[in-house]
Structure formats: structure tokens, C-alpha cells
Amino acid sequence: MQEEQCKFLTHRLNAKAKESDYVISRKPNPAYLAAASFDPELVRRELQETCRAAKENGCTCELILKDVSTVQYHPERLAQWHKIAVEVAGEW
């Protein structure tokens, strides 16, 4: 739990440090796609934290998935990540 609070605080501080003239470019953790089992809720929470921090500070945010080296032979995980990202972006 403390790690999650720390991550959220980091997102908030990064967003607060920027002015509304800038875009926060966030590269979420690609390791969620490489885990033995894929947990969509972990992905959702991380993206929500980023979007929440950006909105609270009047910033625009972009989400970039990169550095994916494996999806454990489950390429559908990429489509799931995309679907979650679109849903989360639509919430904000």
C-alpha cells in the first residue's frame, strides 16, 4: 500500500510541477504485460492515478506504452491494455 501511495504522490508532484501549457508524457510500466498472469486492474489503477494527477493540476496527459519485450505469448494483452487505456482516458 505504501508503494502505491508513493507512486500516486510522484504522479501528483510531477503534474503539479508543470503548467497547463505542457503535456505530461507518461510511460506506464510495461512489466504488467510480461507477468505470468495479466492483471488488468493493476493497469487500470496505474493509468487512473496518472490521469487523476494530470486533471487535478490542469495538465494534458499522454500515455505511451513502450519497451515491451514480451507478453508471455499472449499478444491479446496488448489489445486489453489499449482497451483499458481508452476507457480510463474517457473517464477524465
UniProtKB/TrEMBL annotation:
Superkingdom to which the source organism belongs: Bacteria
Name of the protein this chain belongs to: Uncharacterized protein
Natural source organism: Ruthenibacterium lactatiformans
